[in-house]
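tl;dr need the bound structure. longer version: we got a ligand (zinc ion) that a collaborator sent over and nobodys looked at where it sits. i said id run it. heres the input, straight from their email, havent touched it
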Amino acid sequence: MRKFRTPNNRWISGSVLLIAIGSTIAMALPSNFSISSDPVIKADSSLDISVANEDVAAADLPIIETPAVAKLGAPGTEDKVIRFKAQVAEIAAREVARIAAEKERKAAERRALRAKYTVNPARARISVGYGRKGRIWDLGWHTGIDFNGNYGDSVFAARVGSVIFTGWRPAYGRTIEIKHLDGVVTRYAHLSRIRVVAGQEVDVGQRIGNIGASGKAFGAHLHFETLVNGKYRNPGIWLWGND
Ligand SMILES: [Zn+2]
């Protein structure tokens, strides 16, 4: 499981390392080096800092150009080099903070999109979670999530997609399968009624059927599954963003 990390010690250590890199560049300059222009930020970088912080790609970082013209022995060179070193450190620190803020903003955007475009397939509490072991299930474990609704309650498409199967499946009873834009398939089982047909496009939250107890079910509930390349995955990944 990979979660977004808020700026922490690793960011701080990343900043320190970048400052060190910047300082090293500045130190490498001859001591009588004179600065004729301000440091320039470029989009690409030849610095390989991938080891420094895996969250920061080398290409994301600015390259701080060394001044193009050196005037040997010019007055005030020492001060200019000190100022240049400070600028390098400041730019590196600012850039690390900017990248952290940008990543946090994108993560928040993704969370908002997920909340907007994925909904629970039933308005009911969960009675059996994913992965529970037990001999009552054919595979010896529970391959989906059970929503403990009442007979006849509405069942909703969890996301936008197209219906790829409707009908009877052994154990599952009356079943709907929807393929979503990213290839994930959601399966809705034990239905009492199917309200869509194969080939139909459905919207997120659209009513597609009703809760029932068809197939191998001991009482009315919705059995909800997600499949990726034919393999069961925890529906919680999509519904609540966890693994
Ligand atoms: Zn179930």
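gonna send this back to them w/ a short note. The two ends are 6 Å apart (CA to CA).
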